[in-house]
Amino acid sequence: MATIGKKLMALAVAAALGGLASSAVAGGFAIGTQSGSGTGNAFAGGAAAADDASVAWYNPALMTLLPGKQAAAALHVLKTSFKFENTSSTATGNDGGDGGDWAFVPNAFFTMAINPKFSFGLAFNVPFGLKTEYDPNWLGRFLAIKSEIKTVNVNPSVAYKISDMVSIGGGLSYQRVDAKLTNQSGLGLSTLKAHDYSGYGFNLGIMIQASPDTRIGAQYRSAIKYELEGTATFSALAAANASIKADLKVPDSASLSLFQRLGPQWELLADVTWTGWSTIKALNVTCASVSAVVCPSVGAPLAGAVPTLSFNWEDTWRYGIGANYKVSPQTKLRFGLAFDETPTNDVDRTPRLPDEDRTWVALGVQYRPSKTSILEVGYAHEFIKDASINRPSAGGTVVGSFENKADILSVQYSLSF
Fold first, then answer.
1. How many domains in the chain?
2. What is the per-residue pLDDT across 352-411, written as a single tens digit (0 to 9) for each?
3. How many CB atoms lie within 10 A of CB 327?
4. Residue 73 dihedral angles phi and psi, to the nearest 5°
């Protein structure tokens, strides 16, 4: 069993560093799927639950509750669906098909108790991502055809046990991002590719063991700013191809969580999370070289061929509640419900990310094959409100709504040694 665990860990780390494609399954382009144990609870109580090494991401202060060395590897299979229904568009073309797709998101975590007071942890995960793609001849092709953002996060952290009741923790994050946006334009198919491999941030956490059965946890995670560099290319006019730059910022967030043991069999989890999406206004692309038509000078805005991605988003709140039922010493059932606000609005919403408020319903099972290993399987369905859109484009106005939904299946293997 230990050999299997090591192989799964190696696979998850390799996949994370390889930057597998991902789809947003939380508000904005955040990925709420960060551990296999959390899926079955709709990720309720993440900053207070101490099930496995994934605490290195959710709240490093909880690492002081994990003895010895712990490792966890998870794979999440996501299926998103974004289907456009035209109502009164003046643009011509088809409805675009399903803009969603399958995606595979890996996570891997490690924690180690250095001594009774200090612990160390490491998280490899995919905190942000976006993937939508429509038929090349759909009526919104001048706004968006393919949109893809992929991130990878490496997050070492430490924790210190102040007393039997209080622990604190903190860490540093290194993130890389790759982005690709395509759309139709007067210069043919416009393709923007950009990346930044030097994003840095930090996270802080605290855990209070109020009683043997009650635990409170809180975490703050900083914003990270990317300075993207890449190229803009145009299928009908190679002379317009140019080097480009763009700034992209992922938001800060704060979580407050509760873990409450209700008896020998039941556990209650709850949390509230704030995310500062209001700092994101737009993705403005500027020229890093001179080219025909689109780049008259270095530093000028890229002229119209790739539309500015407007955000004008608002801060959001996420509320989650979950429960665990211990069937036997080997088996635990998980349940979860969450409400996740969208940062978008009806004016600025774009088909690149037709996001709306979503409700999570989740269930899962934990099975312990041995004293040192845990297998987690979780499933969540996201009921997403229809997302209306009314946007002008070079091909005419796009008016209608998106029928959205998402499904998540998670498998995680954890090992103590």
1. 1
2. 999 999 999 999 999 999 999 999 999 999 999 999 999 999 899 999 999 999 999 999
3. 12
4. -130, 135
